[in-house]
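Throughout our pipeline, every protein is held as a single compact record rather than as scattered files. The remainder of this section carries one protein's record, kept here as part of the documentation.

===
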Amino acid sequence: MSSERSAQDYGRVAVLMGGRSAERAVSLKSGAAVLAALQGQGIDAVGIDVGPGVLDELARGGFDRAFIALHGRGGEDGVMQGALEVLGLPYTGSGVLGSALGMDKLRSKQVFIGAGLPTPRYVQLRPDSDFAAVERELGLPLMVKPAHEGSSVGMSKVTEAGGLAAAYREAARYDRVVMAEQWITGAEYTVAVLGTRALPMIRLETPHAFYDYEAKYQANTTRYHCPCGLDAETERAFQALALAAFEAIGAGGWGRVDLMVSEDGRPWLIEANTVPGMTDHSLVPMAARAAGMDFPALVRAVLDTSFAARAGQEGADG
């Protein structure tokens, strides 16, 4: 997938990075890599570390479009997307709805269930939850997650009876909405989405209890398998499932869908990411390489999504 646009066709591009979420450090790395790739292709790109005055900065800066390299709240959850809609500034990736649902693990899971797509069983946790009953209902081990954080921030695996309450308190440090999820024993895969295309799947292998923040960004022990080892027919079926999940939540443009495959060969959707990482450890660039696309070409393809109409925009005036 190569862009037919010239560098001048993009105009002046604001690369939005940093922000104030728990994923700020990763976002700064993603943004720096994207900025260098755009500038290296002669595109007039400017890096902006997003702070309280960002909307004034964008309004005054003469920008023609924005490349969103923000991860987490305030950048990946529809807030920045809505602000850019008000400014009339085209931007990369999903619109407001898809971004908001993609960032909300609880509600995206509810959408998957409503669409008849396979996802692990879950229970929403509250301070007065009967944690022992939840452990019995979902079985052990189980996973505990803040609903609105990315990069595995605040997540933990509960392996022993009585451990859920402490895991809930840890997750609740990051988010008032917390859920417990059935643990799926099996292999972990990710599917990168670019436009309407699913890129080659990647199988993740880590000695950690799960693919946590350290495994994602810091460890050298994480192994990435691409080709992923599945037969071609199965890989196509799982790619189609990932695309269906992405569409179900209203996401578009580009992103990533994570899934587990249990020991009996069944796929289970875990979550969708609408602004995945673009660092040297990141998965979408890895999948793009396997599809014959180098990093500058990938960045340009993502920037091309800023030209696309978003679901729900047509007829919005009437």
User: Anything to note?
Assistant: Confidence is low (pLDDT under 50) at residues 312-318. The CA atoms of residues 55 and 83 lie 8 Å apart. The first strand starts at residue 12 and ends at 17.
